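Protocol check, entry for the methods section draft. Step 1: assemble the input record (protein sequence plus ligand SMILES). Step 2: submit for complex structure prediction. Step 3: store the structure tokens unaltered in the notebook. Ligand used here: pyridoxal-5'-phosphate. Step 1 record:
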Amino acid sequence: MQNDTVHQVPPVSKQITTEPTHQAMRKPYNSVLAAIGNTPLVALDFASQGTIYAKLEYLNPGGSLKDRSALFMIEQAEQAGLLKPGGTIIDASSGNQGIATAMIGAIKGYKVIITVSEKISKEKMDAIRSYGAQIIVCPAIEKIEDPQHYHSQAVALHKSMPNSYMPNQYFSTLNAQAHYKLLGPEIWQQTHGMITHFIAGAGTCGTVSGAGRYLKEQNPNIKVIALDAETSYRATGGNPKPYKVEGIGIDWDTPMLDLNVIDEVLPVSDANAFAMLKTLAHKYGILAGPSSGAVAWAGSEYAKQLKPTDIAVMMFGDSGRAYLSKNLYI
Ligand SMILES: Cc1ncc(COP(=O)(O)O)c(C=O)c1O
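Step 3, stored output:
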């Protein structure tokens, strides 16, 4: 009788760990580039009613939500004849678009130079270098117009270097278009058109405005929530102060802040964003980066007001592995 007990089929909720049929099967790809996107949604029990999913962007090959936008912008430039074989791609980044660009440049055979602020994690700088790209570390200056700012330095370098191309993720609206064309439809299909809330961090605003626009076109009632840093340029009315969360923070007049799409821009403190990180790792097994902590904080607030049929999707932008040296998890 003992054996019968051992071999009893466990309840459905307990058997979902290793069965391959429970995962979306991916066909084999002939390039890492084809493996970009189609990241999973994982339900978190933040809400007593409704469903709230984390979209785990760290499962992209480059480890973040920036793989789609970097690939789209580079391929648009190739098609337009702006980026030619033997060319150099230059861009400014808070790390992740730089990592994605370095990865894609390696595969496609372009030289890549990324300018970053000294405030970004060592792990992200090392990742860019590890794909064979060059990195230029610039002082942590708040005002984007300052010639020492990492965006200004990328522009100057691009102007001085022949056969170079700058995707310009901070000002080119192709960034938002990437998320409109790729991320929006992905989330719509994954939720079978049932999504009611979209919650995403805002840096360039490409993710939240691009995917948000696609989702709102399908259903204008979907609520789109953007997470800004509490002391960003926008949140302080033009008097920014340093903050620690990387990737989010509206620090210039970005052409991608689409307030026709975004219902609410929520400022979040470093403390609130960081406070979520241990819970995500220790309780849910999700080792996510600080911007995901900010999004999770907003998700946990919104979870209180969800209706039983509501489905919220939170963008978890990257992995905590890129921030281990910042001692946020132990
Ligand atoms: C981890 C992470 N989350 C969120 C964002 C914000 O995305 P977006 O620039 O599309 O607004 C970024 C941007 O770099 C990021 O790296």
